[in-house]
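Weekly puzzle thread! Below is a chain. First person to post its structure in token form gets bragging rights.
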Amino acid sequence: MNSREHIFIGIIAFFMYAYFIGNIVSSINNALIWGAAAVVIGSIIPDFIEPATSYRHRGFFHSFGTLVVIFCLFGLTALIALGIAFFSEFSAFYLASCFFLGYLFHLLADSITPMGLPR
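Winning reply:
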């Protein structure tokens, strides 16, 4: 997959996440903008860390083990962010959860390609 596809998938996941946590409001706010930016960065960072120099470019940062770790980090940061009062104002945990969401969906998208993820 290319970076545009990863960004598109990440943004769709972000809007579902933002809707779930109640961050979609009638007007665009800072939390929405910064959250979307964090998702975009998370969606493309794996390919900057491990660029596609060949068909089999996927290593540690594209592995199943990393997928599990990123899933746990997303869950942890999302739960902490949800527990913070006045969640409509963004926090470091909110931004971290958005970053991990983008990374998570990058790996999930790569896992359904013919090459999949290394174990």
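Puzzle host: Confirmed. Bonus trivia for everyone else. Residues 25 and 41 are 23 Å apart (CA to CA).
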